[in-house]
Write a structure and sequence with these properties.
Layout lengths: L1 H9 L8 H6 L4 H13 L1 H12 L10 E2 L7 E2 L4 E2 L1 H5 L4 H4 L3 E6 L5 E5 H17 L7 E5 L4 H13 L2 E4 L6 H11 L3 E5 L2 E3 L2 E3 L1 H10 L7 E5 L13 E3 H6 L10 E2 L3 E7 L7 E6 L1 H13 L8 E4 L6 H13 L3 E5 L10 H9 L3 E4 L1 H9 L3 H4 L8 E5 L5 H11 L6 E4 L33 E4 L13 E5 L9 E2 L3 H8 L8 E9 L5 E6 L3 E4 L2 E4 H9 L4 E11 L3 E10 L10 H14 L8 E5 L12 H9 L15 H5 L4
Parallel strand pairs: 4-17, 6-7, 6-8, 7-14, 8-11, 11-12, 16-17, 16-18, 18-19, 19-20, 29-30
Antiparallel strand pairs: 1-2, 3-13, 4-5, 9-10, 14-15, 15-23, 21-22, 22-24, 24-25, 26-27, 28-29
5'-O-[(S)-ethoxy(hydroxy)phosphoryl]adenosine binds next to helix 13, strand 20, strand 24 and strand 25.
């Protein structure tokens, strides 16, 4: 963290928004000041007014914030609405024929869905869900490639008040089974397969393997035919999507749901081995999704918006499935990898479809930057007017490349800080107004009381001092709880400061202008390519291998992925000479991929006779992080139970 802070403190370049962009932006400097002023003067009133103007209600709310049982906050509690109606029905008269989704498959097939098409598809599938007994409040797992049917399935769940939980298609069958069981899902929606990186993915096979391990709650598997490859269909359980919708009516009345009704669960890693089901409500979530899509992405009617995130992550929820749809935007969905057939694919899509707003992760920017400027330079990127990033801090070098080579120095960059738990952007620039600094997500949005505080909860004003990133007031799209585990919700997010502030789990510092710089996680979570992985999760996967006795996992800096995984392993048998055994390392790496998914694969594995532990048995991760990075070991190691182990861990003996 100290090292990080130093490089960030050195960054002093500033960039003003392009004047042409600024003139045409939705939010002008005076509007932003007014938003801040209103939020400051009356936090609840500010959100209530926006909830009334931005959302269509079936029954208006009378109570804005219920804080009678903190930290279980509720918003707009007595109101009723339907999220899918807010994304589809409201556009039928004004934008029925407008393109909602322009889909491009990895193999180049293009399909266009208007808002009316989306409405029809969603209603059909919602009726199909109902016909198979899926009811209000039931959980539905969506395990699909990145195709429009994933969004249709999510919207269909919202339409009938079922709770969806999307599981990233790259997760393993074991990870899928855990999520089906934890959520007690009644149905799974999947596809026969998808294509990524030129390879056919056996998506349905993943579901079969998951279910073979026993999932009692599960009744139905819906299978969308995407690739036409052979799949096993188990009679009585599996049904083709096209058969399930065949006789359904093309209209489906949107269910009236309470504002607080759970819209979805999304599992994310924490500091224990077991992923937690982050539970979001309906109205509050949608409100922040809409406001941020308008404020931060400056969405206008003629825009072509492209967020490259998979629906398996929260970014694909808020800025693919819900935000742009609720705003009536046109968006791109691309099924495949950025490097198929070559590193120009993203830029070709921008050119071919006239993308105006492009939102991706720093890891993708770094990977594409490495391939050279020839790729972006062979395409016409002049339609772009705004760029965005999310998922991890962006290093200034990647920022500058994005700004100049992709954005032609005319597109503002919105560096958006937020989390699965926050539901929507929290700290981000307003593109026509905010001065940008490469590597800073700038300032909290109106109505978001984010701050950096010390151990006692006091605001830190010294720009050279880092601290805890917190949010001091509830906001509408905050998570409501952890599914079936309210205690873990309290313990994870409200453990300090007498439970007054939401603890984000990141460390940050604020500069003299009040700009936020995110330094990294404070818990045992590693951010690999913008995806959160608990070190405990990877450790549990490793110790499940018959040859492994114990393991400790830490993050190491990685020039493309941001962070990579470094694993220390103690074997049940003898330690290989010098602590290295390539064949066994490969076996363990593949093992982890099978248990969790390929993103969790360690970059390197080092074998040791033991791990460095304190006398109370706690593994000293600080030490392991230094060893993994190849740094000198500084500080006191005398509290170690076994100080001699250090030389061995470093591979010296
Ligand atoms: C990190 C993704 C720096 C942070 C939306 C956070 C960021 C975690 C940024 C959440 C950013 C996200 N700058 N760090 N702009 N955005 N992070 O839940 O550590 O997948 O806590 O949500 O990513 O990851 P999650």
């Amino acid at each position: 963290m100290a090292e990080n802070l130093e490089s960030v403190l050195k960054e002093n370049r500033v960039f003003e928004p392009d004047p042409a962009f600024a003139r045409a932006a939705r939010i002008q400097p005076a509007d932003l000041e007014e938003l801040y002023r209103r939020a400051e003067a009356d936090h609840e009133g500010f959100w209530a007014e926006l909830a009334r103007s931005e959302l269509d209600w079936q029954k208006p709310f009378t109570q804005t914030l219920d804080s009678s049982d903190p930290p279980f906050f509720q918003w707009f509690t007595d109101g009723e609405l339907n999220v899918s109606a807010n994304c589809l029905d409201r556009h039928l008269d004004t934008r029925g024929d407008k393109t909602a989704i322009l889909f491009e498959g990895e193999n180049g097939d293009v399909h266009r869905y208007t808002y009316r098409d989306m409405y029809r598809e969603v209603c059909l599938f919602a009726n199909a869900l109902k016909a198979k007994g899926v009811e209000h409040g039931d959980r539905v797992i969506i395990y699909m490639p990145m195709i429009p049917q994933a969004v249709i399935a999510m919207q269909a769940c919202a339409r009938i008040g079922a709770i969806h939980s999307v599981v990233f298609g790259g997760f393993s069958a074991d990870a899928l089974r855990d999520r089906i069981n934890d959520s007690q899902a009644k149905a799974v929606v999947t596809a026969d397969g998808g294509t990524r990186g030129g390879k056919l993915q056996a998506t349905k096979k993943g579901v079969d393997d998951a279910l073979a391990g026993g999932c009692e709650s599960l009744e139905t598997v819906f299978v969308y035919q995407r690739t036409g490859n052979d799949v096993d269909m188990q009679s009585g359980r599996d049904v083709w999507w096209h058969d399930a919708v065949a006789d359904q009516p093309e209209e489906c009345e949107p269910a009236r749901v309470n504002a607080e009704h759970p819209l979805f669960l999304l599992y994310t890693s924490g500091s224990t081995g077991k992923p937690k089901g982050i539970q979001h409500a309906s109205a509050g979530y949608l409100l922040n999704a809409v406001c941020t899509t308008k404020w931060v992405f400056d969405i206008q009617d003629e825009d072509v918006f492209w967020c490259t995130a998979d629906v398996g992550w929260v970014t694909g929820h808020t800025y693919v499935a819900y935000g742009p749809m609720a705003c009536g935007a046109t968006q791109i969905i691309y099924e495949g990898a950025p490097t198929v057939p070559d590193g120009g694919r993203f830029w070709k899509i921008c050119q071919d479809h006239g993308v105006t707003i492009f939102y991706t992760a720093p890891t993708a920017i770094r990977a594409l930057m490495k391939l050279g400027d020839e790729f972006p330079q062979s395409y016409d990127l002049s339609s772009l007017r705004l760029l965005g990033t999310v998922g991890e801090p962006i290093n200034p070098e990647a920022w500058m490349w994005y700004y100049s080579v992709i954005g032609g120095e005319r597109c503002p960059i919105v560096d958006t800080w937020w989390q699965t738990e926050t539901g929507a952007h929290m700290i981000a620039p307003l593109p026509g107004v905010t001065t940008m600094k490469p590597g800073s997500c700038t300032r909290p949005l109106p109505g978001i009381a984010a701050d950096v505080v010390d151990e006692d909860g006091n605001s830190i004003t010294n720009p050279e001092q880092g601290g805890y990133l917190v949010v001091k007031k509830p906001w509408p799209s905050m998570l409501r709880t952890i599914w079936q585990n309210p205690q873990r919700y309290k313990d994870t997010y409200w453990p300090m400061f007498d439970g007054r502030f939401y603890l984000a789990g990141d460390s940050a510092h604020k500069d003299d202008d009040g700009y936020f710089w995110i330094m990294g996680r404070i818990d045992d979570v590693v951010n690999v390519s913008g995806h959160r992985l608990g070190t405990m999760e990877v450790e549990s996967a490793l110790v499940a291998h018959p040859q492994v006795a114990e393991s400790a996992v830490v993050g190491i800096p990685h020039d493309v992925k941001g962070e990579g995984i470094f694993a220390f392993v103690v074997l049940k048998g003898e330690r290989p000479e010098g602590g290295i055994d390539e064949a066994l390392s490969k076996e363990l790496t593949d093992w982890v991929a099978k248990q969790i998914g390929p993103i969790a694969k360690p970059e390197a594995i080092r074998f040791a006779d033991n791990l460095p532990k304190t006398r109370s048995g706690k593994i000293m991760r600080r030490l392991l992080r230094s060893v993994a990075k190849g740094d000198e070991i500084e500080g006191d190691t005398s509290t170690l139970e076994n100080p001699a182990i250090i030389d061995q861990l470093q591979g010296k003996i």
